[in-house]
């Protein structure tokens, strides 16, 4: 458990009880949590009873077979984790570089970026800092960092939430492309307005308006409404449709770089692009954590020049 070696946590009864509370919630067992923290089952029950009295609410429903957290307990659990993280972050900051980064990192990102780039980079990070624990969750939607208790959300494109901090970790663009077979049959669009006459393959991804493509070109920023007979929330599916000559896609250069290298896709309207930088998004509090600082530095280093760096395109 990431907090066990903190002298402050070990010496403060209330913080120890909060630590025990989070362990029981995770294990769904008084016995397992007690074993993890080196506390007898009888003492576990006594400490939780004391904590419930202090908070004036019931934290768990207990039967002979199982332990389940109550609705009030779920609300208290959010606070308990934040308090423990704050204390841990304070200790990390006070020790600075004298302390090896340790503890749990909870990271979310999109499917393809996570699978082929972020996940293997996190594997390298874990080898460098063996006291870190890593949990990565892949989802094609934006996460609620606070509500879902993630430390970092790695995103493509603009970050609009005012209460979050965006740390740019790599530069990238989205471009328009299609299969040579599609272009041979339907021709090259000569302008953005021509896209209305073409089949566009639509992706409902984490941060783009569905059916609206905003691109920057010689005349500045333009928005074009596109339509097409096929759409998906999965980028792999949309890209494969494009390979088959079914329409035009707008995709990140790193996402379609292998397709360009294999001759499966070609660029259309090269004067136009959409900025789609990669950002690691954190809360203000989390941005001060030493383990998160180390993770952000490592991601920036590896995504730009490492073995799993984001590729560009030559065509």
From TrEMBL:
Name of the protein this chain belongs to: LysR substrate-binding domain-containing protein
Keyword DNA-binding on entry: yes
Lineage: Bacteria, Pseudomonadati, Pseudomonadota, Gammaproteobacteria, Pseudomonadales
Pfam families named among the record's database cross-references: HTH_1, LysR_substrate
Alphabetical keyword list: DNA-binding, Transcription, Transcription regulation
SUPFAM superfamilies, A to Z: Periplasmic binding protein-like II (SSF53850), Winged helix' DNA-binding domain (SSF46785)
Alphabetized InterPro entries for the sequence: LysR-type_TF_proteobact-type, LysR_HTH_N, LysR_subst-bd, WH-like_DNA-bd_sf, WH_DNA-bd_sf
Domain HTH lysR-type: 15-70
Entry similarity comment: Belongs to the LysR transcriptional regulatory family.
UniProt keyword DNA-binding, yes or no: yes
Species name: Pseudomonas shirazensis
PROSITE patterns per UniProt: HTH_LYSR (PS50931)
């Amino acid at each position: 458990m990431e907090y066990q070696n903190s002298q402050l946590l070990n010496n403060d009864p209330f913080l120890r009880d909060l630590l025990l509370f989070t362990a029981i919630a995770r294990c769904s067992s008084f016995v397992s949590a007690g074993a993890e923290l080196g506390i007898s089952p009888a003492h576990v029950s006594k400490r939780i009873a004391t904590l419930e009295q202090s908070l004036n609410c019931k934290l768990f429903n207990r039967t002979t077979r199982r332990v389940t957290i109550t609705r009030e307990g779920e609300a208290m659990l959010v606070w308990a984790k934040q308090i423990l993280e704050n204390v841990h972050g304070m200790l990390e900051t006070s020790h600075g570089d004298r302390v090896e980064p340790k503890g749990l990192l909870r990271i979310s990102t999109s499917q393809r970026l996570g699978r082929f780039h972020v996940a293997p980079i996190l594997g390298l990070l874990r080898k460098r800092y063996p006291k870190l624990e890593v949990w990565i969750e892949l989802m094609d939607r934006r996460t609620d960092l606070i509500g879902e208790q993630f430390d970092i959300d790695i995103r493509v494109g603009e970050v609009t939430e005012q209460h979050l901090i965006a740390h740019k970790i790599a530069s990238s663009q989205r471009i328009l492309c299609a299969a040579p077979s599609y272009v041979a049959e339907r021709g090259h669009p000569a302008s953005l307005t021509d896209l209305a006459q073409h089949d566009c393959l639509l992706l409902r991804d984490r941060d783009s308006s569905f059916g609206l493509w905003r691109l920057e070109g010689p005349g500045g920023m333009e928005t074009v409404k596109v339509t097409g007979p096929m759409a998906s929330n999965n980028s792999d599916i949309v890209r494969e449709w494009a390979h088959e000559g079914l329409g035009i896609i707008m995709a990140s250069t790193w996402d379609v770089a292998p397709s360009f290298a294999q001759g499966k896709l070609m660029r259309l309207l090269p004067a136009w692009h959409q900025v789609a930088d990669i950002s690691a998004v954190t809360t203000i509090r989390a941005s001060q954590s030493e383990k998160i600082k180390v993770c952000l530095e490592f991601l920036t280093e590896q995504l730009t020049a490492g073995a799993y760096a984001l590729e560009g395109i030559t065509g």
